[in-house]
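User: quick one - fold this with adenosine-5'-triphosphate bound?
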Amino acid sequence: MKDILSYIQKRRKWLKYKMIKCFILLGPPGSGKGTQANKIIKKFNFLYLSTGDILRNAEKYDENIRNILKKGKLIPDSLIIKLITEYIKKNNIENGILFDGFPRTINQAKTLDLILSKNNAKISIIFIISLNLKETILRIKSRRVCSICGTNYSIEHNKSTDKCKICHGKLFQRNDDENEKVIINRFLIYEKQIKPILLYYKKSNFLVNINGLEKEEEIFKQITKNIIKRN
Ligand code: ATP
Ligand code: MG
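Assistant: Sure. Structure tokens for the protein plus adenosine-5'-triphosphate:
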């Protein structure tokens, strides 16, 4: 009997150890999710899943998605959930997974719980990066993106930049970054949707707050420290 109990305990410990870890980045537009995500995946080799990037790829073939993105509104949950499920099925998540911009609604959060438990995965940390509206507008207006590798640039900080420093791809401005009203709309939608999400996760120990006004390297240090602690 003792042997069986000790076997069960050992197996439980092993299964817990083998559980796939999932990290999440949430924050208003321009808070640096994409920039930090690039650094995180280079260091930890997680699978990266940005709903924004998946949708910007899908909008090339889908007028409906294009119109919603242009207005800065949220895509319906059913479509997001379908895209996420497909992405996870197609890719290897064994090293861990990093979500950027997901979940954005309670429905998405509940579905994520289901998807993760089916895949022997669990949330480790949700980083909440804060940024005020004024800084959001400033950053988004001056944001340019590499058309090849997706690296973000600020024309405020790199005035002479018209090509990507990494791959020499041409830089462009995202459709939803062109108009100040759309930027404000995205910010307000974020402010509204994050409240129920924070309530949903309140009792867990997943939430870690990050000040998005800090320097890029300082934010990366804080994120790295937290991931190492819980990975
Ligand atoms: P950032 O400036 O960091 O890119 P963002 O929040 O404006 O921040 P993304 O996360 O890239 O941008 O998302 C871009 C757009 O894609 C959103 O405005 C929204 O229309 C749509 N979107 C992205 N993720 C979701 C999601 N989980 N649910 C619904 N719509 C989403
Ligand atoms: Mg982004």
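One thing worth noting: DSSP finds nine helices and eight strands in the chain.
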